[in-house]
Specification:
1 helix
Amino acid sequence: SAGSIQIEASSGDLKLSPLAKIEAKDSQASSGRFSLNADRLTSIDGSVTDAMSLLHPLLVNGGFQRRQAIRLRQQDILVAADQQLSAEQFYLVSDTGSIRVAGTLNAHSERGGLVELAAGDELELLSGAKIFAGASGANADGGRVDLIALDSDEDDVNGSRDRVDLRAGSEIDVSGGAGGRGGQVFVHTRQQDLDQDIISGY
């Protein structure tokens, strides 16, 4: 089977050259795993600061079809409308920033896929965004999608920005295979008492 590539910058940035090439392919180019954990991802000269525009061609061509895990602790993440990523498992995490998806995350697999998006601020699926985590195998249940926005820096006291926003025209598919059950979609965000009908201190 294909290998795994894990990049750790526990207290710093990752800077990519335009000539960078990352691969973990097997004979079927289908089972590699990729993991990135850094504060930020930029081009080596600093001219490109959109992380996914740098990573997208590397992930598409690198054979990382089993798992893609990207954590940027101090940077927003945008999956643009012209970007499509495919892997059985996706993890996109922005500790203190926002995640916006306009493109496609395709985790559709024989036994159902897994997609987890976790934003410290807002998580937004824009019109045209697609998340597929369904199953194709007979009697296989659909996969799971977790959408998380928790305002980790506590800069949105009223909850007007830092939340999960599913725009009209976005799509999430966790359908099961023939004879299987549909999968699960979970939305995790803060619970707010906007009408202040809960009295504390008792």
